[in-house]
Amino acid sequence: MGKSREMGQRFGILPLAAAIALLWVTSASALTININPGATLAGNTAALDAFNRAADQWEAIFTDDITVTIDADLLNLGQPNIIGQASSVQLFAGYDVIRDRMVADAADEFDNGVVAFLPTAAQFNAVVPVGFGLDGTLQATKANLKAMGLAGLDGTFGLSDGTIEFNTQFAFDLDNSDGIGAGLTDFESVAAHEIGHTLGFVSVVDTIDFLVDQGLTADVFLNPLDLFRFSDCSGNPENVTEFTNFDRSLVPGEPAFFDDLFTELAMSEGVFNGDGRQASHWKANELTGSLIGVMDPTLASEELLTITDDDIRAFDLIGWDVAQTEAVQVQAPGGLALFAAGLIWLGRRRAAAQSPAGFWSSSISSVISIWDRSFFSQVVTRS
Prior knowledge:
This protein has helices at 39-42, 45-59, 95-106, 142-147, 153-157, 187-199, 205-213, 240-245, 285-288, 309-317, 366-369; strands at residues 3-5, 32-37, 67-75, 82-88, 90-94, 125-127, 133-141, 162-167, 172-173, 185-186, 219-222, 229-231, 248-249, 256-259, 264-267, 298-299, 324-331, 337-346, 360-361, 374-378. By secondary structure, the protein is α/β, with parallel strands linked by helices. Helix 2 (45-59) crosses helix 6.
């Protein structure tokens, strides 16, 4: 595929031609999230109800006509500062296989014209730590790939899309409808956050961060979210040509942001060599003073997190279909044709389903697969 760039090394890229996104109007479909509870969660009706309410939040947003199955339970995680954690079934294929599915999925989505300008494998560049390279693949959660229109994945790789575990060392409020009790952690916020990881909010920077901490190097895969990860050091795109050409930022500890040419959203930088938070999250609001969304890496007691427009935008760009409003064409950076929102909610045509041929179950070495787990941490105080 394209190249990774260590400090001081740069590789050329070919620019892409301009394109115009198309608006398709049809009736909406619906996402279904099925929770498969373990014994402890099944025996706690209030907790299971709260988990299902969190699933309902995501179901109300996405119109993908698919079913996501999550195994879940309550147990002692042995870590007093980890509230919950998610591990997802992840599949990988050649970079262009998944990149092209992202482009096809977005082709009828009037607000996602920027996806057409994602670099191909031959055009892709990234900044990585010294000694690292790219292995030529993209890796995505099975749920995310199903949202892109890949059919038959459950039959080939199993029904489960991931596992979520809640730490029984925490005292949870299981019903936030009347507020969150003093000193308690909102269970529904944790569940909504962890479901987000299963749906695809994952970055390879966490794998790189862990390997660097262990004194190791590797050729690594990419996640769909990483295709929108930039930094001022790697280049801050202002038009579609720069969006294609500029390096993606995969260096732990480097201030990075999610960028779709309209909005820049700060990302976390890594547990070991960054800001102390997993890179598969927005920048923590106790560090910035501003909460971006439910994919914030930390949660204080008595704090309520909900899914925000910024959360939705990220998922929209990596392959999820969101109910949209009536469109009015406007001019975007670099001549990209996008549309401004109107007032009427409309559905979205689903991309044609494809078979899972050419996909493989993630069987990366044990060192890397350790970070096929995203966790939600407690923060005691807010600045």
